[in-house]
Each structure stands twice: as structure tokens, then as C-alpha cells.
Amino acid sequence: MLAYVVRRLLYAIPILIGVNLLTFLLFFVVNTPDDMARMQLGIKRVTPEAIAHWKAERGYDKPLLYNRNAEGAARVTNTIFFEKSVKLFAFEFGRADDGRDIGNEIRTRMGPSLAIAVPTFVLGLFVTVSFALLLAFFRATYLDFWGVVLCVAMMSISSLFYIIGGQYLVSKVWHLVPISGYAGGLDAMRFLLLPVLIGVAAGIGSSTRWYRTIFLEEIGKDYVRTARAKGLSELAVLFRHVLKNALIPILTGVVVVIPLLFMGSLLTESFFGIPGLGSYTIDAINAQDFAVVRAMVFIGSVLYIAGLLLTDLSYTLVDPRVRLQ
Amino acid sequence: MTPVLLWTDALVFLLVACGIASGIYISRREYLLASWHRVGESRAGMASLTLLVAFVVVGLIDSLHYRPRLEAASGQPGGYSGEVRSLLDVLLQPLRDGTEKTYSAPLAAHLYARETVELPDGSQARVFPRLKHGGAHLADVEAEWGRDVTLRTLRGAALAVLAGLTFVALAVLFAARRWGTGWQAAWRRIRRGETRFAWHAALAALGMLLLLAGPALSLAGGYHVLGTDKVGQDVLYLTLKSIRTGLVIGTLTTLVMLPFAVALGLVAGYVGGWVDDLIQYLYTTLNSIPGVLLIAAAVLMVQVAIDMHPDWFATAAQRADARLLALCLILGVTSWTGLCRLLRAETLKLRELEYVQAAQAFGASAARILGRHILPNVMHIVLISVVMDFSGLVLAEAVLSYIGIGVDPSTISFGTMINTARLELAREPVVWWSLLAAFVFMFVLVLAANLFADAVRDAFDPRLAGSRRSLPGKMA
Question: B86 pairs with which residues across the strands?
Fold first, then answer.
């Protein structure tokens, strides 16, 4: 088990290096720092001095890969590649354009992001699995049919509509919760309620349909027939046999996103003005703050790889047939 | 005028050509046709296909671009306008030119905001001024408006019914000839759904479409059916123009990613060894970057490149089009991994089958085996994932445009419409129509795509072949 985990962690290294190289290519080679400086300072009225100042401020005035003017190890370390890309591995993200430390910013913004993402995830999973079980229980009836129709309709609605419509109806017309904002402590409940509910509602359509398919596939198997032949009630079959076995495919899709919950939700956070990592990313994209975008890309891939590892480990917990070696 | 072939236009027409070619190819092969027949047998499939065809027709008309000739000044050679228009713009000329000053509600004859006007006696008053185009033909709005709107609606509905009846009559006459029965018998069979294909569903969808489009077109002659937006553009015009952008993103992205996904997936599965490792490494790496961030990073870079080189493009439309194409490319690069993995797994399975071993024993080359023996047997996976991806891509466009990494702000799309309209809900009184129009059109397009995708999956997925459940009543 431990050996397996270690080996998987070693596998992650080339992937992270790949991600790193890709972002390096995207941000520094496809468009040079000069292009970015000109873009940020405005295309028309820009002087070479302003560009040089902009680059020096951010440490982009070094050579890309190899510094001829430096001595010894500094030939490799005193370059953009080492300063901006390699240091990501040590989780040193440098400074954003507004001068704040990105690592520090990420730590403070993680809280609000999790406060919204975790309840959405847990509640969403509970609601969709229950709804899917209900449809599977009433399979091939009109309830099932109209349930699926509802799911298809719900997944055809843009997530923007859920947010905008929910905000308009609940906050503006009914005045139940504030439209946007955030506060620490228990007071946060007021602000989190609506985004969580909207997040759950937006996910119901596609997840329910997906889980229903999984349940129906399990229900068609032989062991279920055996369980019924033993005289078990349909409910007992569903909960004790089908649910347990259907957990395996459900886990594949679910566990992998758990680490990514840290990243928060781009849309929800920006619409509700929640100071989390999602709105941080959006602000960075809009302000074209490349340092922040680069840091988020790296963190995102680290979390995704962690999710893959967790998925494999969770298999051993739910499926005794799976042995990791 | 001079025709303009934008990059996306060229690819759209290439796609249409591919579609027609594969249609001809399939229609000559009984075993390929069988699955498509199953799509035709599904009511939801036929009804959604009818709607999709309507959307595609609008999108294609909007893909024929030209630049109008400028009025030549005396003695000088006439140039061409820098503005690129499409055939749809010509058809919707009155809607396009009928811009107002600012917001107006659907079917309104007055602006939505009060304005200070000078009365003939010199005093000033705050009134809702009349629109320049919407309801301009009415002399006395309060007395005539209701009657005029009703009359126009009825006229449009009557035309729609007439058109619908013509379609039904043509279908019945065609069917009667084909089956050699009387038209009454043919009509009965179509109405009861006793035909092989669910023609009654297609006709019903067409009828609904006509009933909505007829009155809308008839009213559009004198009013802004869906109101106007902040700068006074007709919302109906904007939504119709958005259709092309949505379709382009949904289809071209797939077209871009297919060669990657298919080639790499098949090669990884068939060749194995270090090639397989390399390809797996490639897609795991790409997959591990959160999609939105990769798209954001790439779009930012494309934008820098486009802004740095204004000389690349002759017109603003071409620049916007380049950005749209770039978005499709980027979405394609980020979305091929899923299909690639599926194809690799399927090829791994197929590689061990007897018929592939037989081909190997005959000395067929790897390329020939992949092309002749494996590719045709994974095409159903490709097709299913193409139609399933479409609706997701249309929805993604709106979200990306909101984040600011979608299409060019000057491109009319559902995303840009929602983005400019979403702040209007905070106004008092609320301006809801442009937001709702964009959402409803997008919903119908995505719903039709989803239903069609389901029908295609049910027809093509061999795993479902044995388990086609017969559900009670009309659900079968």
C-alpha cells in the first residue's frame, strides 16, 4: 500500500513538470514578456523605458533559460524559467501585480472558497444520489419518465441562469438573503445559503441522470436477482446491495473533484462577491495578472493529481476485490 | 459587393461537405443505415432533429458573408465597406436598421426611459418618447395598439397554419404515393404514428416552430418583438445572430479535436509500448490542468498576439472571427482527452479480437488494420461523444464569455448578450427581455441537442442494444 502511494507520487512528478513546461511555453515563449508589457501598459503610448521598468518590477528582465552574464549555478538559477516556473514546485508563487504575496493571498482566500464548495458538494451528492435512487426505485413508470425529462431540461439550462435567476428571485424580489457579500464566522450563513442552494440545483440534472444509469445497470445484474429471490424487499435490495455496488463507479467521478474544491467556483464566487480563490482567479484573468493565473494553473494540477491518487485509494476502501500493488 | 470567406465560414462549409459525403456513404450501406433508422424511429429524436435543422439553417444563412460596395464618390473608384455582413443581415435588414435610442420593452411603442422633451408651447415635460421604428405606423398608440398587435398576430398565425398545412399535405401526398394508398389512409397512419419513422413528431415540432415564428415575423414588421437593448438594437436580431456563434463553437471545436483524439487514441491502443506511455502522459498532463484555467491562459495569449498585430486582419469582423476560431481551437485542445481515452480503451479490446488477428496474419499493415478494421468499429463512440459534447460547448461559450475569455466582445453571441444584459436586472424597473431571450433561445438549442444526443446514443450504443426497455404507454 505505502509502496503504491510512493510510486504514484513519483508518477506525479513528470506530469507536474509537463504542466510547468506547458505554462512556461504559454506565458513566456509564445508571447514574450515584451508583448505582455506592451499589452498591460497600453499598446499605443508605450516607451521602451516603461517596458523595461515593468519587466524589472516583475523580474521578467532576465534571460529565459540560460544567463550568460552570471557565474556558476546562477547561470541557470538567475533566469525566468527558474525564478518563475521551477520555484512553483516549492509553492513559491511570487507577487501579484498589486504587490501582494500570492501564497499568502491563497491561504486567506481558501476559507471562504471551502465554506461554499464543501456544503455544495456534500449536499449536492446527497440530493442527487437520493433522487437517482428514487427514480431507479420507480423505474419504467411515469414518475421515472418525467423525472428524467426534468433532469434533461435542468441540464439544458445555463448555469448562469440558475445564478442570475436565483439571485433575482430570492434576493431582489423576496428579500430573503443579501444579494452578495461575505462575512466571517456564523454570520457567513446568511451569505452562503443562496449560493449553496443554487450550486446544488445547477448540478442536479446531469448528476442525477448519470447516477440513475449506474443504478439501473447494477439492478440488471445477477446478484440483484438473487437478492430478490431470497425474498428481500425492493427497498432492502436497493439500499443494501445496489447502492453499495453502485458506489464504485460513482466514486470515480466524485473523489477526483474533492481536492479541487479548494479552487472554489469561478462563477458562483464572482456573482456573489465571495472573496475566495474562484473570484481571485477571475479577477486575475480580467486584470491579466499572469503571475496569479500561472500559480492557479499549477495548484489546480497538483490538486487534480491528488484527486486521482485519492480515487485509487478509495477503491480499496469500497471494493475489496481491488488490491493495490 | 464582394464575398468574404471568413475562416469559420470555410470550416463550417467543410463540415457541411463532410456531412453530405458521409450521408451518401452511409445511405449506400444497409448496416450503417440501420442505426440511423433507429434514431428516426424515436419521437424525441425526430422532433429535436427538426428544431436543430431550423437552427442550422439560420446558422448557415448567417455564414454567407460579403462586404457591401460603398457609394463611389464622383470620379473615384468605389471601395468596399469595412463592415462584413451576412445573408441573414440582408434578410433581417429592417430589424438590423431599426435601432432605437435605448431600451424598449417587447412590442412597445414607447421608450423605456423618460426623456425631457420640449412641448410646442415652449414648456418642458418628462414623457416616454415614441420609438422611431417600433409601432411608428400607429397614429394613436392607446387606441390602435391592441387591435394592431392582435391583427398582426392573427395574420402571422394564419400564415403559419397555412404553411404548416402545406407541409402536412405534401408529406401525406408523398406518403400516399409511396405506399400506394389513398391520402386518407396515409394521413391516418402518419397521425397515429404508425409509420416507420416518427414523422408525426417531426411535423408537430415543425408546426410549433411555425406557430411561434409566423406571428413573430409578422409582428417584427412593425414592432420590436423582443424589445431593444441598451443601445437600441433589436433583441430578436441579436438572438438570431447568436445562433451561428453557438453552432460554430459546438461543431468546429469537435472538428478540430477529432483528428487528435481519433489518431492518438487508436495508435495508443493498437501500438502500445512507449508510444502508449507517451500518449497517456500527454493527455494526463493536459487533463490535469483545470480546463477553465488552461482556456484562460491560452485565450489571454491569443489576445496578446491579436492585439500586437492589428495588421493581420483587414476588418474588425475578421479579427473577431480569428478570435472565435482560436477559441474553438483552444476548446478542442482541452477537450480531446476524454474521447482519446475512450478510444484507446476500445482499441485495446478490439486489438485482441480474431478478425484483427486474421488481418495481421494476412500481413496487413498496421495503418491498414487501424483504418479498415478498427476505425469503423469505434465510429459509434466518436459519433456519440460528438453529439454529446455539442450541448456542453454551447453552454460553455456563455460561461467563458462571462469570465471574459470567450468570444470577442463585438461578436454577437448568447454569452455576450447575457454578459451585457445581466446588470439590467438591478435596474428599477427591471429590464428582463434581452436576458430572458438569450436564455430561452439557448435553452431550446441545448435541449434539442441533448434530446437528439440521447436518441443517437440509444441507437448507436451496442451496450444498450439488448436492453432497449419497452416502457409503458407512449414512452416506448
Answer: B65
Tally of CA atoms within 13 A in the half-sphere of B299 that contains its CB = 28
ipTM over 0.90? The verdict is no
How high does pLDDT run on average in chain B? 86
**pLDDT, mean of residues B215-234:** 88
In this complex, is the C-beta atom of B428 within 8 Å of any C-beta atom belonging to chain A? no
The secondary structure element, H or E, covering residue B187 is helix B183-191
Query: Could you tell me which residues come within 8 angstroms of residue A6 by beta carbon, excluding any fewer than 6 positions away?
Result: none
Angle at B404 between CA B407 and CA A285, to 5 degrees: 135
Amino acid present at A61: D
Count of residues making up chain B: 476
Nearest CA in chain A to B391: A156
Q: Are B443 and A157 in contact (CB under 8 A)?
A: yes
Rg (CA), chain A: 25
Burial of A312 (0-12, 13-18, 19+ CB in 10 A): middle
**Residues in contact with B276: Cβ distance below 8 Å, sequence separation at least 6, in sequence order:** B268, B269, B344
For residue B243, pLDDT beyond 80: yes
Match 438473487 to its residue by C-alpha cell. Answer: A226
Residue B130 β-bridge partners: B110
Residue B182 Cα, gap to closest chain A Cα (Å): 37
Helix and strand element counts for chain A (H, E): 15, 0
Cell of B159: 400564415
Residue B170 and residue B183 in contact, taking contact as beta carbons nearer than 8 Å: no
Q: CB atoms < 10 A from the CB of B90, how many?
A: 14
CA distances from B24 to B20, B29, B379, B381 (A): 6, 9, 16, 20
Q: How far apart are CA B222 and CA B390, in angstroms?
A: 36
Please, what's the b/e burial string for B340-378 (b: 16 or more CB within 10 A of its CB; e: otherwise)? bbbbbebbeebbeeeebeebeeeebeeeebbeebbbebb
A93 within 8 A of A302, measured Cβ to Cβ: no
- Identify the segments of chain A with pLDDT beneath 50: none
Q: What 3-state DSSP class applies to B228?
A: strand
pLDDT category at B474 given cuts 50, 70, 90 is very low
User: Please, what sign has the CA dihedral across residues B421, B422, B427, B428?
Assistant: positive
Say how far apart CA B414 and CA B247 lie, in whole Å: 11
> Is B397 within 8 Å of B445 (Cβ atoms)?
no
DSSP-assigned letter for residue A91: T
pLDDT, residue B17, reads: 93
Amino acid at residue number A92: E
CA contacts within 13 A on the Cβ side of B450: 25
d(CA A7, CA A126): 34
Nearest to B345 by CA among B272, B397, B409: B272
Q: Taking the CB of residue A42, how many other CB atoms lie within 10 A of it?
A: 9
User: To the nearest 10°, the Cα dihedral for B263, B268, B271, B277?
Assistant: 140
Residue B73: predicted pLDDT: 57
Q: Are A36 and B281 an interchain contact pair (Cβ–Cβ within 8 Å)?
A: no
CA B263 vs CA A14, A164, A245, B260, B380: distances in Å: 24, 41, 35, 5, 15
Candidates B288, B294, B430; nearest CB to A15: B288
pLDDT tens figures, B147-180: 889 999 999 999 999 999 999 999 999 888 888 8
> Identity (one letter) of the amino acid at A260?
L
Q: What is the DSSP letter of A95?
A: B
Q: Are B186 and B175 in contact (CB under 8 A)?
A: yes
B310, B327, B468, B472: which is closest to B393 by C-alpha? Answer: B327
Residue A309 C-alpha, separation from nearest chain B C-alpha, in angstroms: 12
A156:B391 CB<8 A:
yes
Length of chain A: 325
C-alpha distances in Å from residue A106, one per residue of A94, A101, A277, B205: 12, 9, 7, 51
To the nearest whole angstrom, how far is the Cα of B124 from the nearest Cα of chain A? Answer: 35
